[in-house]
UniProtKB/TrEMBL annotation:
<dbReference type="GO" id="GO:0046872">
    <property type="term" value="F:metal ion binding"/>
</dbReference>
<keyword id="KW-0408">Iron</keyword>
<feature type="binding site" description="axial binding residue">
    <location>
        <position position="352"/>
    </location>
    <ligand>
        <name>heme</name>
    </ligand>
</feature>
<dbReference type="GO" id="GO:0006784">
    <property type="term" value="P:heme A biosynthetic process"/>
</dbReference>
<keyword id="KW-0812">Transmembrane</keyword>
<dbReference type="GO" id="GO:0005886">
    <property type="term" value="C:plasma membrane"/>
</dbReference>
<keyword id="KW-1003">Cell membrane</keyword>
<feature type="binding site" description="axial binding residue">
    <location>
        <position position="290"/>
    </location>
    <ligand>
        <name>heme</name>
    </ligand>
</feature>
<comment type="subunit">
    <text>Interacts with CtaB.</text>
</comment>
<feature type="transmembrane region" description="Helical">
    <location>
        <begin position="350"/>
        <end position="370"/>
    </location>
</feature>
<protein>
    <recommendedName>
        <fullName>Heme A synthase</fullName>
        <ecNumber>1.17.99.9</ecNumber>
    </recommendedName>
</protein>
<feature type="transmembrane region" description="Helical">
    <location>
        <begin position="43"/>
        <end position="63"/>
    </location>
</feature>
<feature type="transmembrane region" description="Helical">
    <location>
        <begin position="321"/>
        <end position="344"/>
    </location>
</feature>
<dbReference type="GO" id="GO:0016653">
    <property type="term" value="F:oxidoreductase activity, acting on NAD(P)H, heme protein as acceptor"/>
</dbReference>
<feature type="transmembrane region" description="Helical">
    <location>
        <begin position="155"/>
        <end position="177"/>
    </location>
</feature>
<comment type="similarity">
    <text>Belongs to the COX15/CtaA family. Type 2 subfamily.</text>
</comment>
<comment type="function">
    <text>Catalyzes the conversion of heme O to heme A by two successive hydroxylations of the methyl group at C8. The first hydroxylation forms heme I, the second hydroxylation results in an unstable dihydroxymethyl group, which spontaneously dehydrates, resulting in the formyl group of heme A.</text>
</comment>
Amino acid sequence: MSLSARHMPVAAAAATHAPAAAGRAVDADPAAARRDARALARWLLLVCAMVWIMVALGGATRLTGSGLSIMEWAPLSGTLPPLSEAEWNRLYDLYRTIPQYALVNQGFGLEGFKRIFWLEWVHRLWGRLIGLAYLLPLLWFWARGRIPAGLKPRLLLLLLLGGMQGVVGWVMVASGFEPDRTAVSPYRLVAHLGLALALYAALLWTALSLLRPAPAAEEAPRALRGWVWATAGLAALTMLAGGFVAGIRAGLDYNTFPLMEGRLVPSGYWWLEPAWRNLTENVAAVQFHHRLLATLTLLAAAGAAHAAWRGRPGAAARRGAVSGLLGAVALQYALGVATLLLVVPVWLGTLHQAAAVLVLTMALVALHGLRRAPARGDGAGTRGP
Ligand code: HEM
């Protein structure tokens, strides 16, 4: 994922690729190339912020049981909400055909339907706005020749990932209409959450690489890099495990901490056959794994902070980033415990989902700050500023 090999520094990378499109010649002026890099980074950070809000909106949509209220996939015509009573009734009639209506919301009336409709509609509208906030500036920067050629494939890939996220979202929603189902498939929920987080990570990493094309002059100690990588990897696993907790509503049981029904390892742990089903379908095991992974993440983050503070005092930025990571993980841990003890209130569940993105952000910032300079002689390191 490193941009550094091709864009180090961005101005130099831009200088090696004369713009094919019409517009200002970025290769003529390193200062202009740096300005372009900053402008591109600001745009990507804005999109990141929008994706972050989208993750929170997604959490609120799920927790209020709104996600199945729109049964059509209409990327363009669905932009407008129902504008007449006839249209409201048509959508409500559609909703009344699915099991969630019969089993959960029977008889809640058109008013009840309108209550669950709006969050799902805002969630989808926000998705469309993210698409526009990405696509329009992309076209503009491209047409003006302000994108270094080496960056273009990645920006197109991000566009593709964003489009895929819309499709995965719909595939997830469609699973909720199947017979006997009152919620979406947990596997598809995790795929949707995982892709959102991957997209966010790719956007943020690209923006950071535009802002700081060269790794720090002083290489970080090996142990510190190991701890931060461990924290990031464990945090990613914890998030996916959290997706399953949310997906099978495992947060509604075992609402005590740190013990689960008086035991460290709950009695219902690992009884399903075949064994792999315990990882995704057994409430006790799914929740236990999420707790365990979260605890390991917290310990790894503490290890990283310890390693950063033990190092040379010169590396202040590195210490700041790693301490920020520990702070974010500790906050998320506390939010998780509170969410569990209070039996998943909508606001707290939403906050816990949103704060996962904070953990991801701090992990990426720390990892980015620890990048190593490319080895000499591989061609990339020889292009000086
Ligand atoms: C590093 C720490 C943690 C991270 C990164 C994390 C991340 C997540 C994520 C991403 C979700 C899924 C949200 C979704 O898809 O809607 C989730 C759900 C959940 N987490 Fe955590 N979590 C952490 C710690 C904890 C802890 C320590 C507990 C409790 C002991 C906990 C309890 C829960 C519960 C109950 C849910 C389900 C909430 C719902 O149904 O909306 N989490 N977590």
